Amino acid sequence: MIGLIIRRIFQLILLLLGISFLVFMSMHVAPGDPATIIGGPTASSSDLEAIRESMGLDRPVLIQYVDYLGGILQGDFGYSFQTGQSVTEAILTRFPNTIKLSIASMVVAIIIGIVAGIIAAIKQNSWIDISSTTFSLAGVSIPNFWLGTMLILVFGVQLQWLPVGGLNAPIYTIEGIKELILPAITLGTASAALIARMSRSSMLEVIKSDYIRTAKAKGVKRKSVIWVHALRNAMIPVVTVIGINFGALLGGTIITEQVFAINGIGRLMIDAIASRDFPVVQGTVLLVAAIFVIVNLIVDIIYAIIDPRITYN
């Protein structure tokens, strides 16, 4: 396990290095000029040259990239072209909202998905199974922005049960929980549908295994067979889906944060891309990539905990 962690950390470094290079080059090759955006339509050529020189944009791209890597090694991700704020400070200010939304969405997805999938497998071909399958198809098909808008109209505007924008209250308060409900459901529905489908298929496969039939033949109670013996082995592919979807949720927060006016990493990234704010875009993309790789490492560790037969030698 220690060897796995060391290898993954090494892979993480190489992956982030590659991502940083691709994002850096993509931002510089894309049409548009940050100096023009900052200077505005009235800026003269000399003004634009002065802006480029002050931001270091007049140097060769590869030199800029090497300087950028040197700053990262010192913990300096640069400063925003638009606000002059440290990229690290901007990310730390908004990241708590994004991570709260992602975790809440994942909790919703896990609870709904696993429960619905297991019950559907136990009640195969019943109305419960059909309803779960229908929910899965609908959850995958419905766009986040449409679902979020409908939830706002129904529960925020018509019924006025829940707030519809921002994450301003602390998470441990009732108001903070209420603020999370609608965006968490919006973001977590598609993941819940995928987890439900995977839980159902995995549970059906495990239930038909020889050791499950043996446990039943020995007189083990049905609840113990399902929730102790079958569930643990059925969770291995489900854990994979959960890990991948958690990484995807961090990227998916972009749309949800826009719909619910949440001041998170997603909105920061969108604003930075629109204004060609290179340092902010690079910093946010590297953060999301790092979390995605770390989550996959955690998934591998959970594999070994769930099933001791799995080794990484």
Describe the structure in brief.
The protein is an all-alpha fold and 313 residues long. The chain contains twelve helices and no strands.
Walkthrough of the structure:
There is one protein chain. This protein is mainly alpha-helical and 313 residues long. The protein has 2 domains: 2-73, no CATH class; 93-306, MetI-like (MetI-like fold), CATH 1.10.3720.10. It has 12 helices and no strands. The chain has helices spanning 2-29, 34-39, 45-55, 61-73, 87-122, 127-141, 144-158, 174-207, 210-217, 222-259, 265-274, 278-306. The longest helix has 38 residues, at 222-259. The radius of gyration is 24 Å and the shape is globular. It starts with a helix and ends in a 7-residue tail after the last helix. 32% of the residues are buried. The mean pLDDT is 78.
Keywords, please?
313 residues, mainly alpha, MetI-like fold, 78% helix, MetI-like_sf, transport, Nickel import system permease protein NikB, ion transport
Question: Which fold name fills CATH's third level, the topology of the largest domain?
Answer: MetI-like fold
Unreliable residue stretches: none
Query: What do the pLDDT scores average to?
Result: 78
CATH top level label of the largest domain: Mainly Alpha
